[in-house]
Amino acid sequence: MTTAFVRIAIASFAFFCAIPFALATLMVPLSIPQLAAESDLIVHGKVISITTALRTDRRIVTRVLTEITETWKGEHPGSRLEVVLAGGTLGTKQVVVDGQPDYHPGEEVVLFLKFNQGKEAVTVGLGQGKFVVWTNPETGRKEVYNPFHGRVATGTRKSQGRNSQETTGEPSLTLADLKRMVVRNPN
């Protein structure tokens, strides 16, 4: 084996090992006041359904229909709201957008939303704009979490509302506290 061949093989291996890291999404944590300030609409509600479609520009999008329980900031006519996400699975084609939140029917959520140029609601800060609501079995209080705030029940499927008494070491954030933080800083 020649030295040049070994160098090329090592360089190729290093290049292909680096690809997953190069494609990763860097997410800068937003504070709750920052999320609120960047949002046009903040709602508390429940996910009703999820559909995936192909747009006329051939992009796959996921549409999340939410029943609004309460509006904390902004205005929206009606009791239902559709949130649009880039990507999804359509037949055998799948498009994944790193950092995009996952949604599940029946899931209780608080959504920090912005309207895009097409007047569609999208989450602020990718997954940061979605807080999952869960009931802490020890306290009976409703708590919330997103990738950077609140604590998560562990040992369960977090998104399906089933929670154990074990939680991550993060400080808890109640639904009531989140609402107070948002309403106090409506911007």
Report what the structure shows.
The protein has 187 residues and is of the alpha+beta class. It has a single domain (32-184), classed as OB fold (Dihydrolipoamide Acetyltransferase, E2P). Helix content is 20%, strand content 33%. The chain contains three helices and nine strands; from the N terminus they run ααβββββββββα. The chain has helices spanning 3-23, 32-38, 175-184, and strands spanning 41-54, 60-73, 80-86, 88-90, 93-95, 108-115, 121-123, 130-135, 142-145. Strands 1, 2, 3, 6, 7, 8 and 9 form a seven-stranded antiparallel sheet that branches. β6 (108-115) and β7 (121-123) form a beta hairpin. The relative contact order is 0.16. Mean pLDDT is 81; it is low at 14-23 and 156-165.
Structural class: alpha+beta
CATH names the topology as OB fold (Dihydrolipoamide Acetyltransferase, E2P)
CATH architecture: Beta Barrel
**CATH level 1 name:** Mainly Beta
Oligomer: single chain
Q: pLDDT average, as an integer? A: 81
User: CA-to-CA gap between the ends?
Assistant: 66 Å
How many beta-strand elements? 9
Shape: globular
- Gyration radius, rounded: 20 Å
